[in-house]
Amino acid sequence: MIQLKNASKSYMQGAREVHALRNVSLNIGKGEFLSVMGASGSGKSTLLNLIGGLDQPSGGEIFMDGKPLHGISDDELTLIRRRRVGFIFQFFNLLPVLTAAENVSLPLLLEGTPFSQIQPKAVDLLKKMGLEERVDHRPEQLSGGEMQRVAIARALVTNPAVLLADEPTGNLDSHTSEEIFMLLKSLHEQGQTIVMVTHDPRAAAYGSRIVTLKDGAISEDITTGGLEA
Ligand SMILES: Nc1ncnc2c1ncn2[C@@H]1O[C@H](COP(=O)(O)OP(=O)(O)O)[C@@H](O)[C@H]1O
Ligand SMILES: [Mg+2]
Known about the structure:
Helix 6 links the parallel strand 7 and strand 8. Helix content is 33%, strand content 29%. By secondary structure, the protein is an alpha/beta fold. Bound molecules: adenosine-5'-diphosphate and magnesium ion.
């Protein structure tokens, strides 16, 4: 479903060129739950951002469902990102002035769909995240785990082809983290394709496959089948 062929990404840091990714080739199948591990600075976020169309490779090719994500215009990339990709982040990135239901609706509101049309779907997703009592709460009224579950509901509202998670529990305690991983695991069991970046081996073990990056290149690629509950 997602294909990288010799993808590379370099950044300029002052006069110095940093090779964040070096000739990475990777196929991610539909329905896979891929964990991406590696030390800080190994290129995990760069890889995720290329897969999600937040950024373009400096070299090589990336395809989603056979369509190129490289060498296309920013507008085309934005459309693919909005419609085909769901993101969750370490710091949740919820808008503080909006309720949970409004935050979940945001990706579709940005496309011009009226809130009244989205609301039932937003409420349904929040229920699936165990947040039926929190629909009208604002982020400041929610715990960290609840905020991340709202963010997951928001990421799913467009029925994305792939859910991308960058250190999704980096700001949560271990018990709450476990709840988030179980939730991702159950989404995977329902067929959702997931790519999750983590530096924590225990977290990575929830994936059905673990790719490890070292200095911007794949050093290991193991299929595990995923941690049993
Ligand atoms: N926007 C950027 N500008 C310059 N250098 C960057 C940028 N993003 C990442 N890098 C560099 O690329 C390398 C890989 O970064 P990153 O993908 O964020 O690693 P990780 O997520 O594994 O910690 C690091 O050396 C980092 O400093
Ligand atoms: Mg990172």
